[in-house]
Specification:
TIM Barrel; eight-stranded parallel β-sheet; globular
Length: 259
Amino acid sequence: MLVDSHCHLDFPELRVQLPAVLGRMAAAGVTHALTISTTLAGFPQVLAVAESQPNLWCTAGVHPDERGDGRETTVDELASLASHPKVVAIGETGLDYYRIEGDAGWQRERFRVHVRAARACGKPLVIHTREAAADTLRILEEEGAAEVGGVMHCFTETAEVAAAAMGLGFLISFSGIVTFKNARELKEVARQVPLERMLVETDAPFLAPVPHRGKTNEPGFVRHVAEEIALLKGVSLAAVAEATTENFFALFRGARAAG
């Protein structure tokens, strides 16, 4: 049994063929998935997907890259959205300095709002960080994120960043990137992160793993991520599946209640 801990089933590439995607997911032994919110406007559709199947859940949040309609969310709004039993986390949130121009203060303030909302509703965080690891860790610490914990999704940072995040109570999630031939440093990080602190994900429809690289990603492909982790750590696929599934339900406690 495997869980895709981060995908975007509401995105057009997957939503238009959702029954087939879910069928292939089941055939691959992937029994549950968490579909992730990236905008306020898109949240109702994310929730609708989660409500459509007993083995799907979702999050509430605004991606750090999204400017949307210019309206920023609030702690109360996010906590209200997260009160739905299908919503098991706040996010994805965090910092992304890759494409940003000028001052990123608005991004940092939005991130703080999400952490405060997670603490207010007692649900974990799904964290996105790109070229912003130091600020991401600093804000998590300053805002008391260790109180709720969460996951560093699609992890591509160093072993030192992983250790710091785990020190704050966060899990480390590996995506299809870890299967890429040139991802040597990330493969070493995956060797070092204990199985009991790890999740696997697809980030579908993006970042399809080898042997599907360049194609539309989907939850069933998380099996390839787990297989690579098993190879890197010298353990069985069953051991990776068992550990990452247990980790998922321990972190996203509402998923077990809703399932």
